[in-house]
Amino acid sequence: MTETDLTSVLLVEDNPSDARLIEEYMTEQPWSDTDTDGPVIERSDRIEEAVTASFDEIDIILLDLGLPDSTGLDTLDEMVAVCDGTPVVVLTGLDDERVGAEAVEHGAQDYLVKDDLSPRLLRQTLRYAIERERRQQELQQRNTELALLNQVVRHDIRNDVTVILSWGDTLTAHVDDDGSEYLDRMLNAGKHITNITETVGDFLDVLEGNSDPELRPIDLEGVLINEVEKARSAHDDVTIALTVNHKGRLQVAATELLSSVFRNLLNNAVTHNDKPEPEITVHVEVLAETVTVDVADNGPGVLDGQKDEIFGRGEMGLESSGSGIGLYLVDTLVDMYDGTVVLTDNDPEGSVFTVQLQRYRN
Description:
The protein has about 350 residues and is of the alpha/beta class. The chain has helices spanning about 15-30, 45-50, 75-80, 95-105, 120-170, 175-210, 220-235, 260-270, 325-335, and strands at about 10, 40-45, 60-65, 65, 70, 90, 110-115, 215-220, 240-245, 250-255, 280-285, 290-295, 340-345, 350-360. The strands form four sheets. A five-stranded parallel sheet has the order 2-1-3-6-7, sandwiched between helices. Strand 4 and strand 5 form a beta hairpin.
Protein backbone atom coordinates (compact mmCIF):
# COMPACT_ATOMS: atom_id res chain seq x y z
CA MET A 1 0.00 0.00 0.00
CA THR A 2 1.33 3.48 -0.86
CA GLU A 3 0.79 6.53 1.29
CA THR A 4 -1.23 8.24 -1.46
CA ASP A 5 -3.84 5.43 -1.41
CA LEU A 6 -5.85 7.34 1.20
CA THR A 7 -7.48 10.21 -0.70
CA SER A 8 -10.98 10.54 0.80
CA VAL A 9 -12.50 10.09 4.25
CA LEU A 10 -16.11 10.12 5.41
CA LEU A 11 -16.18 11.58 8.92
CA VAL A 12 -19.45 10.84 10.73
CA GLU A 13 -19.27 13.04 13.82
CA ASP A 14 -21.87 15.42 15.34
CA ASN A 15 -19.58 17.17 17.82
CA PRO A 16 -18.10 20.23 16.04
CA SER A 17 -15.06 20.38 18.34
CA ASP A 18 -14.19 16.72 17.85
CA ALA A 19 -14.73 17.01 14.10
CA ARG A 20 -12.53 20.10 13.86
CA LEU A 21 -9.73 18.43 15.82
CA ILE A 22 -9.80 15.36 13.60
CA GLU A 23 -9.77 17.52 10.47
CA GLU A 24 -6.75 19.42 11.83
CA TYR A 25 -4.94 16.16 12.62
CA MET A 26 -5.64 14.95 9.10
CA THR A 27 -3.99 18.01 7.55
CA GLU A 28 -1.42 18.90 10.21
CA GLN A 29 1.37 17.04 8.41
CA PRO A 30 1.63 15.91 4.79
CA TRP A 31 0.53 12.33 4.12
CA SER A 32 3.40 11.91 1.65
CA ASP A 33 6.36 13.86 0.28
CA THR A 34 4.29 15.15 -2.63
CA ASP A 35 0.96 15.67 -0.88
CA THR A 36 0.46 18.87 1.11
CA ASP A 37 -3.31 18.92 1.43
CA GLY A 38 -4.03 15.47 2.81
CA PRO A 39 -7.16 13.45 2.01
CA VAL A 40 -10.49 15.05 1.17
CA ILE A 41 -12.81 14.93 4.18
CA GLU A 42 -16.56 14.64 3.75
CA ARG A 43 -18.49 15.14 6.98
CA SER A 44 -21.92 14.02 8.15
CA ASP A 45 -23.42 14.55 11.59
CA ARG A 46 -26.29 12.07 11.24
CA ILE A 47 -26.29 8.39 10.34
CA GLU A 48 -29.33 9.02 8.15
CA GLU A 49 -27.22 11.30 5.96
CA ALA A 50 -24.04 9.20 6.15
CA VAL A 51 -25.63 6.03 4.77
CA THR A 52 -26.52 7.82 1.53
CA ALA A 53 -22.88 8.64 0.67
CA SER A 54 -21.22 7.45 -2.54
CA PHE A 55 -19.06 4.78 -0.97
CA ASP A 56 -17.25 3.90 -4.18
CA GLU A 57 -15.60 7.33 -3.91
CA ILE A 58 -14.64 6.96 -0.22
CA ASP A 59 -11.53 5.16 1.03
CA ILE A 60 -12.49 4.87 4.70
CA ILE A 61 -15.18 5.87 7.22
CA LEU A 62 -14.52 7.40 10.64
CA LEU A 63 -17.69 6.71 12.62
CA ASP A 64 -18.73 8.15 15.98
CA LEU A 65 -21.03 5.72 17.79
CA GLY A 66 -22.95 8.46 19.58
CA LEU A 67 -25.02 10.38 17.04
CA PRO A 68 -28.29 12.29 17.51
CA ASP A 69 -30.25 9.76 15.44
CA SER A 70 -28.41 6.56 16.39
CA THR A 71 -26.20 5.31 19.23
CA GLY A 72 -24.01 2.37 20.08
CA LEU A 73 -23.42 -0.69 17.95
CA ASP A 74 -26.69 -0.12 16.10
CA THR A 75 -24.96 2.83 14.46
CA LEU A 76 -22.11 0.62 13.30
CA ASP A 77 -24.46 -2.13 12.11
CA GLU A 78 -26.40 0.35 10.01
CA MET A 79 -23.24 1.70 8.41
CA VAL A 80 -21.65 -1.69 7.74
CA ALA A 81 -24.87 -2.87 6.09
CA VAL A 82 -24.63 -0.22 3.36
CA CYS A 83 -20.96 0.76 3.01
CA ASP A 84 -20.21 -1.97 0.45
CA GLY A 85 -16.86 -3.07 1.83
CA THR A 86 -15.51 0.39 2.65
CA PRO A 87 -13.51 -0.03 5.89
CA VAL A 88 -14.95 1.52 9.05
CA VAL A 89 -12.95 2.82 12.02
CA VAL A 90 -15.04 3.55 15.10
CA LEU A 91 -14.57 6.70 17.19
CA THR A 92 -15.44 6.35 20.85
CA GLY A 93 -15.16 8.49 23.92
CA LEU A 94 -14.85 5.43 26.14
CA ASP A 95 -11.41 4.05 26.93
CA ASP A 96 -12.83 0.55 27.12
CA GLU A 97 -11.24 -2.35 25.20
CA ARG A 98 -14.54 -4.23 25.37
CA VAL A 99 -16.20 -1.53 23.26
CA GLY A 100 -13.45 -1.83 20.68
CA ALA A 101 -13.62 -5.63 20.61
CA GLU A 102 -17.39 -5.53 20.14
CA ALA A 103 -17.01 -2.98 17.34
CA VAL A 104 -14.57 -5.27 15.51
CA GLU A 105 -16.96 -8.20 15.98
CA HIS A 106 -19.66 -6.10 14.31
CA GLY A 107 -17.55 -5.34 11.27
CA ALA A 108 -15.27 -2.41 12.15
CA GLN A 109 -11.65 -2.68 11.12
CA ASP A 110 -10.40 -0.81 14.19
CA TYR A 111 -11.38 1.74 16.83
CA LEU A 112 -9.93 4.98 18.20
CA VAL A 113 -10.41 6.54 21.62
CA LYS A 114 -10.88 10.27 21.12
CA ASP A 115 -8.82 11.29 24.15
CA ASP A 116 -5.85 9.25 22.85
CA LEU A 117 -5.87 10.69 19.33
CA SER A 118 -2.74 12.08 17.75
CA PRO A 119 -1.93 12.88 14.11
CA ARG A 120 0.40 9.93 13.83
CA LEU A 121 -1.98 7.44 15.49
CA LEU A 122 -4.85 8.63 13.32
CA ARG A 123 -2.95 8.26 10.05
CA GLN A 124 -1.47 4.92 11.05
CA THR A 125 -4.85 3.49 12.09
CA LEU A 126 -6.57 4.60 8.89
CA ARG A 127 -3.86 3.20 6.63
CA TYR A 128 -3.74 -0.13 8.42
CA ALA A 129 -7.53 -0.40 8.35
CA ILE A 130 -7.61 0.14 4.59
CA GLU A 131 -4.89 -2.46 4.06
CA ARG A 132 -6.62 -5.04 6.27
CA GLU A 133 -9.91 -4.53 4.44
CA ARG A 134 -8.15 -4.94 1.10
CA ARG A 135 -6.45 -8.14 2.22
CA GLN A 136 -9.73 -9.52 3.59
CA GLN A 137 -11.54 -8.86 0.33
CA GLU A 138 -8.73 -10.51 -1.67
CA LEU A 139 -8.84 -13.51 0.65
CA GLN A 140 -12.62 -13.74 0.40
CA GLN A 141 -12.42 -13.66 -3.40
CA ARG A 142 -9.73 -16.34 -3.38
CA ASN A 143 -11.77 -18.52 -1.02
CA THR A 144 -14.83 -18.16 -3.25
CA GLU A 145 -12.83 -19.25 -6.29
CA LEU A 146 -11.29 -22.18 -4.40
CA ALA A 147 -14.69 -23.29 -3.11
CA LEU A 148 -16.04 -23.29 -6.66
CA LEU A 149 -13.02 -25.23 -7.91
CA ASN A 150 -13.41 -27.72 -5.08
CA GLN A 151 -17.08 -28.23 -5.92
CA VAL A 152 -16.30 -28.85 -9.60
CA VAL A 153 -13.43 -31.22 -8.83
CA ARG A 154 -15.44 -33.22 -6.28
CA HIS A 155 -18.33 -33.48 -8.73
CA ASP A 156 -16.05 -34.80 -11.50
CA ILE A 157 -14.31 -37.22 -9.15
CA ARG A 158 -17.59 -38.64 -7.88
CA ASN A 159 -18.90 -39.09 -11.42
CA ASP A 160 -15.74 -40.91 -12.55
CA VAL A 161 -15.65 -43.10 -9.45
CA THR A 162 -19.31 -44.00 -9.96
CA VAL A 163 -18.44 -45.21 -13.45
CA ILE A 164 -15.46 -47.20 -12.12
CA LEU A 165 -17.58 -48.85 -9.42
CA SER A 166 -20.24 -49.72 -11.98
CA TRP A 167 -17.68 -51.38 -14.25
CA GLY A 168 -16.20 -53.17 -11.25
CA ASP A 169 -19.59 -54.58 -10.23
CA THR A 170 -20.06 -55.81 -13.79
CA LEU A 171 -16.71 -57.60 -13.65
CA THR A 172 -17.61 -59.50 -10.46
CA ALA A 173 -19.22 -62.38 -12.38
CA HIS A 174 -16.23 -62.64 -14.74
CA VAL A 175 -13.35 -62.73 -12.24
CA ASP A 176 -12.00 -65.97 -10.78
CA ASP A 177 -11.25 -66.54 -7.13
CA ASP A 178 -7.65 -65.39 -7.47
CA GLY A 179 -8.73 -62.07 -8.95
CA SER A 180 -11.78 -61.42 -6.79
CA GLU A 181 -9.66 -60.28 -3.83
CA TYR A 182 -8.04 -57.56 -5.94
CA LEU A 183 -11.36 -56.54 -7.44
CA ASP A 184 -12.80 -56.15 -3.94
CA ARG A 185 -9.86 -53.99 -2.96
CA MET A 186 -10.41 -51.82 -6.03
CA LEU A 187 -14.09 -51.41 -5.26
CA ASN A 188 -13.40 -50.57 -1.60
CA ALA A 189 -10.82 -47.98 -2.68
CA GLY A 190 -13.41 -46.41 -5.00
CA LYS A 191 -15.95 -46.24 -2.18
CA HIS A 192 -13.31 -44.68 0.05
CA ILE A 193 -12.66 -41.96 -2.54
CA THR A 194 -16.39 -41.21 -2.60
CA ASN A 195 -16.40 -40.92 1.20
CA ILE A 196 -13.47 -38.52 1.06
CA THR A 197 -15.32 -36.20 -1.35
CA GLU A 198 -18.30 -36.16 1.03
CA THR A 199 -16.06 -35.37 4.00
CA VAL A 200 -14.34 -32.53 2.16
CA GLY A 201 -17.76 -31.10 1.28
CA ASP A 202 -18.85 -31.27 4.92
CA PHE A 203 -15.63 -29.61 6.03
CA LEU A 204 -16.16 -26.75 3.60
CA ASP A 205 -19.68 -26.31 4.99
CA VAL A 206 -18.10 -25.86 8.43
CA LEU A 207 -15.50 -23.37 7.19
CA GLU A 208 -18.02 -21.30 5.23
CA GLY A 209 -20.64 -21.32 7.96
CA ASN A 210 -20.93 -19.46 11.22
CA SER A 211 -18.15 -20.30 13.67
CA ASP A 212 -20.77 -20.26 16.41
CA PRO A 213 -23.71 -22.06 14.76
CA GLU A 214 -27.21 -22.17 16.14
CA LEU A 215 -27.64 -25.64 17.66
CA ARG A 216 -31.01 -27.30 17.28
CA PRO A 217 -32.58 -30.66 18.13
CA ILE A 218 -31.18 -33.55 16.10
CA ASP A 219 -32.50 -37.13 16.31
CA LEU A 220 -29.34 -38.93 17.41
CA GLU A 221 -30.73 -42.46 17.15
CA GLY A 222 -32.00 -41.78 13.63
CA VAL A 223 -28.60 -40.45 12.60
CA LEU A 224 -26.82 -43.50 14.04
CA ILE A 225 -29.20 -46.01 12.44
CA ASN A 226 -28.78 -44.33 9.06
CA GLU A 227 -24.98 -44.18 9.22
CA VAL A 228 -24.64 -47.74 10.51
CA GLU A 229 -26.84 -49.03 7.69
CA LYS A 230 -24.79 -47.15 5.10
CA ALA A 231 -21.56 -48.54 6.56
CA ARG A 232 -22.96 -52.08 6.48
CA SER A 233 -23.99 -51.68 2.85
CA ALA A 234 -20.56 -50.36 1.86
CA HIS A 235 -18.64 -53.00 3.84
CA ASP A 236 -20.49 -56.30 3.84
CA ASP A 237 -17.50 -58.09 5.39
CA VAL A 238 -17.68 -55.95 8.55
CA THR A 239 -19.89 -56.70 11.56
CA ILE A 240 -21.43 -53.54 13.03
CA ALA A 241 -23.66 -53.69 16.12
CA LEU A 242 -25.69 -50.75 17.47
CA THR A 243 -27.21 -50.63 20.97
CA VAL A 244 -29.13 -47.75 22.55
CA ASN A 245 -30.09 -47.88 26.24
CA HIS A 246 -32.95 -45.46 25.85
CA LYS A 247 -36.57 -45.65 24.86
CA GLY A 248 -38.36 -42.78 23.23
CA ARG A 249 -37.12 -39.76 21.35
CA LEU A 250 -33.43 -38.98 21.80
CA GLN A 251 -32.43 -35.48 20.73
CA VAL A 252 -29.05 -33.79 21.04
CA ALA A 253 -28.00 -30.19 20.44
CA ALA A 254 -26.21 -30.18 17.07
CA THR A 255 -26.64 -29.42 13.35
CA GLU A 256 -27.33 -31.54 10.28
CA LEU A 257 -23.59 -32.20 9.98
CA LEU A 258 -23.80 -34.50 13.03
CA SER A 259 -24.14 -37.40 10.59
CA SER A 260 -20.65 -36.60 9.30
CA VAL A 261 -19.23 -37.18 12.79
CA PHE A 262 -20.36 -40.80 12.92
CA ARG A 263 -19.84 -41.49 9.22
CA ASN A 264 -16.18 -40.56 9.61
CA LEU A 265 -15.76 -42.51 12.84
CA LEU A 266 -17.24 -45.62 11.23
CA ASN A 267 -15.14 -45.20 8.07
CA ASN A 268 -12.04 -44.76 10.20
CA ALA A 269 -12.82 -47.91 12.19
CA VAL A 270 -13.16 -49.89 8.96
CA THR A 271 -10.31 -48.38 6.97
CA HIS A 272 -7.68 -48.87 9.67
CA ASN A 273 -8.82 -52.34 10.75
CA ASP A 274 -6.36 -55.12 9.85
CA LYS A 275 -8.46 -58.05 11.05
CA PRO A 276 -9.89 -60.70 8.65
CA GLU A 277 -13.27 -60.14 10.32
CA PRO A 278 -13.52 -56.50 11.44
CA GLU A 279 -15.99 -55.86 14.24
CA ILE A 280 -17.42 -52.50 15.29
CA THR A 281 -19.81 -51.79 18.15
CA VAL A 282 -21.70 -48.55 18.61
CA HIS A 283 -23.11 -48.12 22.11
CA VAL A 284 -25.22 -45.20 23.29
CA GLU A 285 -25.43 -44.27 26.98
CA VAL A 286 -28.01 -41.63 27.95
CA LEU A 287 -27.53 -39.50 31.06
CA ALA A 288 -29.58 -36.64 32.49
CA GLU A 289 -27.79 -33.84 30.59
CA THR A 290 -25.57 -35.63 28.11
CA VAL A 291 -25.42 -38.54 25.70
CA THR A 292 -22.28 -40.64 25.25
CA VAL A 293 -21.66 -42.64 22.07
CA ASP A 294 -18.84 -45.22 22.03
CA VAL A 295 -17.59 -46.38 18.63
CA ALA A 296 -15.34 -49.35 19.37
CA ASP A 297 -13.37 -51.59 16.99
CA ASN A 298 -11.09 -54.64 17.16
CA GLY A 299 -8.36 -53.08 15.02
CA PRO A 300 -4.68 -52.49 15.82
CA GLY A 301 -5.32 -49.60 18.20
CA VAL A 302 -3.39 -46.36 18.53
CA LEU A 303 -0.23 -45.69 20.54
CA ASP A 304 -0.71 -43.44 23.58
CA GLY A 305 1.58 -40.77 22.17
CA GLN A 306 -0.56 -40.50 19.04
CA LYS A 307 -4.03 -40.44 20.59
CA ASP A 308 -4.27 -36.65 20.58
CA GLU A 309 -2.40 -36.13 17.30
CA ILE A 310 -4.79 -38.41 15.42
CA PHE A 311 -7.43 -35.66 15.50
CA GLY A 312 -5.03 -33.15 13.98
CA ARG A 313 -4.83 -31.24 17.26
CA GLY A 314 -1.95 -28.94 18.07
CA GLU A 315 0.12 -26.56 16.01
CA MET A 316 0.35 -28.83 12.96
CA GLY A 317 -3.42 -29.09 12.50
CA LEU A 318 -4.27 -31.00 9.33
CA GLU A 319 -0.57 -31.58 8.69
CA SER A 320 -0.26 -33.74 11.80
CA SER A 321 0.45 -37.45 11.60
CA GLY A 322 -3.17 -38.35 12.31
CA SER A 323 -5.73 -40.07 10.09
CA GLY A 324 -6.47 -37.04 7.95
CA ILE A 325 -9.32 -34.64 7.41
CA GLY A 326 -12.03 -37.07 8.59
CA LEU A 327 -11.03 -37.14 12.25
CA TYR A 328 -10.08 -33.46 12.16
CA LEU A 329 -13.62 -32.74 11.01
CA VAL A 330 -15.03 -34.94 13.78
CA ASP A 331 -13.07 -33.01 16.41
CA THR A 332 -14.08 -29.65 14.91
CA LEU A 333 -17.79 -30.48 14.74
CA VAL A 334 -18.02 -31.99 18.22
CA ASP A 335 -16.30 -28.94 19.66
CA MET A 336 -18.86 -26.72 17.85
CA TYR A 337 -21.60 -28.75 19.54
CA ASP A 338 -20.10 -28.05 23.00
CA GLY A 339 -19.19 -31.73 23.25
CA THR A 340 -16.03 -33.79 23.57
CA VAL A 341 -14.40 -36.67 21.70
CA VAL A 342 -11.64 -38.80 23.19
CA LEU A 343 -9.77 -41.89 22.05
CA THR A 344 -9.00 -44.76 24.43
CA ASP A 345 -7.96 -48.41 24.15
CA ASN A 346 -10.53 -51.14 23.62
CA ASP A 347 -10.41 -54.36 25.61
CA PRO A 348 -8.74 -56.67 24.67
CA GLU A 349 -7.63 -54.86 21.49
CA GLY A 350 -8.58 -51.99 19.25
CA SER A 351 -9.77 -48.45 19.88
CA VAL A 352 -12.79 -46.69 21.34
CA PHE A 353 -13.85 -43.22 20.18
CA THR A 354 -16.11 -41.71 22.83
CA VAL A 355 -18.29 -38.79 21.75
CA GLN A 356 -20.18 -36.86 24.41
CA LEU A 357 -22.97 -34.53 23.28
CA GLN A 358 -25.43 -32.27 25.07
CA ARG A 359 -29.03 -33.41 25.25
CA TYR A 360 -31.37 -30.87 23.69
CA ARG A 361 -33.59 -29.08 26.16
CA ASN A 362 -36.42 -26.72 25.14
